């Protein structure tokens, strides 16, 4: 059963209590005790009524909760959110009819009496006594306003609401004292203005402006006489006189108000008669509250903004304090969302992945050098129906996201950046066999080492058997060679990699620490798209990492005033040298030019990026950037159950899904639209020398010019690594498949790479190109 709110109908018990309260109050007034100067009331019921003089002198009026507007970077509205739908307006912006109607029906002597209407009390007492029930109330408009203040202060706490509306003599006396104070301090016009802004009109509408827009889709200043009368009539009992659910009852109540307006001389009897013949003329606007109403598919971005507000200490010392500001509302929040980029992201997502598909996609775009989040979208809309979700697939768990997804080979550039910062030359060559055991031992942080299990060593392999070394950094990155990058992290140690990841803001989506295992080089740790997009923005900005931000400015309206609130600022710091970033940019340009990300390349402007496909094809990625935008696209099953094999996505069939095929084109179309009309910026090119002779042949028989793969089947993995560039049988080889074909699997149900591979925690995880 819904709780009774201000203006709600009274039960028989409540009517009796009100009748008693009016009677006692009338007696008190008649006894000359209605003024503060008289002193104690002396009403005998012990504990039920406080001494009049002992009541607090000042009524604390909390700021009225209002709707909050969330805007994009251009000032366009994304969504409206509120705990109570209210827009505070001055009296001059309310129709004179609605002012007269509310006074006529609720307190016709409002301008003649003080805080309490003695004649009204006596008249009500006499009429109620003769009828044996509460046929007429005695509260003035000022007293009703005070009660509404109590209700507003109670918020949505049912216990406090009950206390604020309880039919007791004590509450009536408190109400009276505060009404006297309000009359002295505000005056009649301000009281009427406040009353019309605070009172509840049903259908989630608080205040006359929200009510006018809810029932008639117009402003309160444009209400005609019959519309004003309808709204004034609702106040007494919003549920009983709800015109949406009971038109006949609402019409009768409206006509009572019109008749009363004629009786007190606000309108003529002819006007009243004509207005009573008119239909209600409803033009109902449905309540539009919350991020579910966001435009441009920005519901999840809207939700992220809310999470930022509730979690960032800049908005208050505690979450409770921040929530109070948020619920109070009246905020205008201008965000960093670029409408062009958001449109492009949602358009591309819709073209490539359907919301009813077995898998989903999430995409995020950020601005290098500022950390501004420009776009955030996903294929499963914000909602509660089938194929909808409230989980933001683009962000970390602490910000309303899930557990994250293994980024696969999109993590490899972070390993390369750590190696370059450690002094490794950009033309470094490793033997890179097709299959090998993880080298051991490998140094980790705090003087620790990682050891492979000698009895059952964890192994890894490349994406197909044609990928055998030797490789240098440029070719290994373009082809996403797993064994190359594992040899690299084993060479420099794990700690430089986890340190670099931290500098670039790369953390696990669930908040856990990054484990000290070499398999992290292959992207075994679950990340969010926002994390990966912002990390790659570090490369685009030549090594400067900036924390992500979603809010540009916040202003709050309190009463007639507006004030600016402090907002979180992006903090930028150098994660790597410009030379290292420029080198990574050169390496990743090769990925989109002639590597695994060729389908993601942009026409007419330089771009760089990296593909990623995880074990068992639970996830596929493309993360890329230009000098002025960086974006990440993930495709997969959020529940980590559906492998992307023999699957239809966006109406297209795929025998196998990988980063260059599905996420790559999504990224290309998204970034092309987001960058349209933007300046074409170029990377700072650096020369990356070849580490090996690139004129070698690729004979099928492994003859002259063929490669020595450094291994001999399943048992030769270590030989290739330890023996260097020779050893094992020839596998010179023809060209591999045009796209990666992962073949090394992890057990069903495996979620986190560090758990696979025995006690070493060095799982193969998601690590393919």
From TrEMBL:
Sequence segments annotated as region (Disordered): 685-769
Catalysed reactions, semicolon-separated: Preferential cleavage: (Ac)2-L-Lys-D-Ala-|-D-Ala. Also transpeptidation of peptidyl-alanyl moieties that are N-acyl substituents of D-alanine; [GlcNAc-(1->4)-Mur2Ac(oyl-L-Ala-gamma-D-Glu-L-Lys-D-Ala-D-Ala)](n)-di-trans,octa-cis-undecaprenyl diphosphate + beta-D-GlcNAc-(1->4)-Mur2Ac(oyl-L-Ala-gamma-D-Glu-L-Lys-D-Ala-D-Ala)-di-trans,octa-cis-undecaprenyl diphosphate = [GlcNAc-(1->4)-Mur2Ac(oyl-L-Ala-gamma-D-Glu-L-Lys-D-Ala-D-Ala)](n+1)-di-trans,octa-cis-undecaprenyl diphosphate + di-trans,octa-cis-undecaprenyl diphosphate + H(+)
UniProt cross-references to InterPro entries, sorted A to Z: Beta-lactam/transpept-like, Glyco_trans_51, Glycosyltr_51/Transpeptidase, Lysozyme-like_dom_sf, PBP_transglycosylase, PCN-bd_Tpept
Annotated Penicillin-binding protein transpeptidase domain residues: 362-635
Pfam families: Transgly, Transpeptidase
Compositionally biased tracts (Basic and acidic residues): 685-710
SUPFAM superfamilies: beta-lactamase/transpeptidase-like, Lysozyme-like
Keywords of the record: Carboxypeptidase, Glycosyltransferase, Hydrolase, Membrane, Multifunctional enzyme, Protease, Transferase, Transmembrane, Transmembrane helix
Domain of life: Bacteria
Regions of compositional bias (Gly residues) in chain numbering: 713-737, 755-769
Residues that span the membrane, as ranges: 20-45
Residue ranges annotated for the Glycosyl transferase family domain, each copy included: 77-261
PANTHER family in the record: BINDING PROTEIN TRANSPEPTIDASE, PUTATIVE-RELATED (PTHR32282), PEPTIDOGLYCAN GLYCOSYLTRANSFERASE (PTHR32282:SF33)
Protein name: Transglycosylase domain-containing protein
């Amino acid at each position: 059963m819904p709780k009774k709110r201000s203006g709600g109908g009274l039960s028989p018990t409540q009517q009796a209590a009100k009748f008693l309260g009016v009677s006692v109050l009338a007696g008190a007034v008649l006894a000359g005790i209605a003024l503060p100067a008289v002193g104690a009331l002396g009403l005998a019921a012990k504990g039920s009524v406080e001494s009049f003089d002992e009541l607090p002198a000042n009524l604390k009026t909390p700021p009225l909760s209002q709707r909050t507007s969330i805007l994009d970077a251009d000032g366009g509205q994304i969504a409206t959110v509120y705990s109570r739908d209210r827009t505070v307006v001055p009296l001059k912006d309310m129709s004179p009819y609605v002012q007269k109607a509310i006074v006529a029906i609720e307190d016709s002597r409002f301008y003649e009496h003080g805080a309490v209407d003695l004649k009204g009390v006596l008249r009500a007492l006499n009429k109620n006594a003769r009828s044996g029930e509460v046929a007429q109330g005695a509260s003035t408009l000022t007293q009703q306003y005070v009660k509404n203040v109590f209700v507003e202060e109670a918020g949505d706490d049912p216990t406090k609401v009950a206390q604020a509306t309880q039919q007791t003599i004590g509450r009536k006396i408190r109400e009276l004292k505060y009404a006297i104070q309000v009359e002295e301090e505000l005056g009649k016009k301000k009281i009427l203005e406040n009353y019309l802004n605070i009172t509840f009109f049903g259908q989630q509408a608080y205040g006359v402006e929200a009510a006018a827009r809810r029932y008639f889709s117009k402003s309160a200043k444009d209400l005609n006489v019959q519309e004003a009368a309808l709204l004034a009539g609702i106040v007494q009992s919003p549920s009983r006189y709800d015109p949406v659910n009971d038109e006949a009852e609402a019409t009768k109540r409206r006509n009572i108000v019109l008749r009363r307006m004629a009786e007190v001389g606000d309108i003529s009897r002819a006007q009243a008669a004509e207005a009573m013949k008119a239909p209600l003329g409803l033009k109902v606007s449905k309540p539009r509250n919350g991020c579910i109403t966001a435009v441009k598919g920005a519901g999840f971005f809207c939700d992220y903004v809310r999470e930022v507000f509730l979690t960032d200490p800049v908005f208050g010392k505690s979450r409770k304090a921040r929530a109070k500001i948020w619920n109070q509302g009246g905020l205008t929040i201008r965000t960093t969302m670029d409408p062009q980029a958001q449109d492009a992201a949602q358009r591309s997502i819709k073209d490539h992945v359907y919301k009813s598909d077995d898998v989903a996609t999430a995409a995020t775009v950020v601005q290098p050098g500022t950390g501004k989040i420009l776009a955030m979208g996903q294929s499963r809309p914000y909602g509660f129906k089938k194929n909808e979700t409230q989980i933001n697939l683009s962000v970390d768990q602490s910000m309303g996201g899930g557990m994250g997804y293994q980024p696969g080979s999109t993590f490899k550039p972070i390993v390369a950046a750590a190696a370059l910062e450690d002094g490794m030359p950009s033309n470094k060559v490793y033997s890179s066999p097709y299959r090998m055991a993880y080298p051991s031992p490998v140094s980790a942080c705090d003087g620790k080492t990682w050891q492979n299990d000698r009895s059952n060593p964890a192994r890894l392999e490349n994406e197909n058997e044609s990928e055998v070394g030797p490789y240098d950094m440029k070719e290994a990155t373009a082809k996403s060679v797993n064994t190359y990058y594992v040899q690299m992290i084993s060479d420099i140690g794990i700690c430089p990699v986890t340190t670099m990841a931290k500098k670039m803001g790369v953390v696990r989506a669930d908040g856990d620490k990054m484990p000290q295992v070499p398999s992290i080089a292959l992207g075994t740790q679950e990340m969010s798209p926002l994390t990966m997009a912002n990390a790659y923005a570090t490369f685009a900005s030549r090594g400067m990492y900036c924390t992500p931000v979603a809010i540009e400015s916040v202003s709050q309206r309190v009463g007639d005033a507006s004030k600016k609130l402090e907002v979180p600022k992006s903090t930028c710091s150098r994660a790597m040298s410009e030379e290292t970033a420029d080198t990574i940019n050169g390496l990743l340009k090769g990925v989109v030019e002639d590597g695994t990300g060729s389908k993601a390349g942009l026409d007419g402007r330089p771009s760089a990026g990296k593909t990623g496909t995880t074990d068992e094809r639970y996830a596929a990625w493309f993360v890329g950037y230009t000098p002025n935008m960086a974006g990440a696209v993930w495709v997969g099953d959020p529940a980590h159950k559906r492998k992307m094999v023999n699957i239809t996505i966006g109406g297209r069939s795929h025998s196998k899904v990988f980063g260059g095929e599905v996420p790559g084109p999504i990224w290309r179309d998204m970034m092309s639209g987001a960058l349209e009309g933007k300046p074409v910026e170029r990377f700072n090119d650096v020369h990356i020398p070849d580490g090996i002779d690139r004129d070698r042949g690729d004979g099928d028989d492994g003859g002259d010019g063929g490669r020595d793969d450094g291994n001999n089947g399943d048992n030769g993995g270590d030989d290739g690594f330890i023996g260097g560039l020779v050893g094992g049988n020839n596998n010179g080889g023809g060209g591999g498949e045009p796209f990666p074909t992962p073949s090394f699997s992890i057990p069903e149900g495996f979620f986190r790479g560090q758990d696979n591979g025995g006690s070493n925690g060095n799982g193969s995880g998601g690590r393919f190109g």
